[in-house]
């Protein structure tokens, strides 16, 4: 990881079904409406490694080491191709999942968190300005996904997601940045308002405690 200059990097995180993709899009739309130069990204990306990842995640078993390797490769490509260039141009970059997902998911699947952090440092992955963790109990998230009629893969099992959630709730101890835990059981509008409240204060230069 590395500190960055210029631009603002805002990350939306949470377990599957937490609503982070919806919130990332709403935040991006709000930034554009407010006149900011903004870009909306997501990981896994639609690039070479991201596509391989989606295929392999769908088709069942992906060994933890192999998953970790692919997520890291996808991230390094995203950082070099999309994130750093946008930050250099002064954009507000909103990203739906980032290395915090790797800490939480691959950490929960047994990859040592120290190793995840040191690998990301080695590749100079920029540290975000704000991380929103949308927090929801795993069973509630799974019920939401069921209502959306989505299929569950091995990534979406309750015990595993509960383990991932626990790491998310403590992720502030691993990364030197502002981590805001948001109660994602609230409705879409309330969560959005809470997020833009923090973001607008951050962008207008006020520091959070
Ligand atoms: P997800 O955000 O659900 O993508 P999509 O909406 O396209 O399905 O991400 C897919 C899965 O990948 C999800 O279960 C979380 C997992 N994941 C990791 O395990 N590590 C990572 O570093 C990232 C970015 C995602």
Structure description:
The chain is an alpha/beta fold and 209 residues long. The protein has one domain: Rossmann fold. Helices cover 52% and strands 14% of the residues. A 5-stranded parallel β-sheet has the order 2-3-1-4-5, with helices on both faces. Helix 1 (20-33) packs across helix 8, helix 2 (48-58) runs antiparallel to helix 3 and helix 4 packs antiparallel against helix 5 (113-122). The radius of gyration is 16 Å and the shape is globular. 39% of the residues are buried. The structure holds thymidine-5'-diphosphate.
What layout of secondary structure does this protein have?
Elements: E1 8-14, H1 20-33, E2 38-42, H2 48-58, H3 64-88, E3 92-96, H4 99-108, H5 113-122, E4 130-135, H6 138-147, H7 158-169, E5 178-183, H8 188-203
Bound molecules: thymidine-5'-diphosphate.
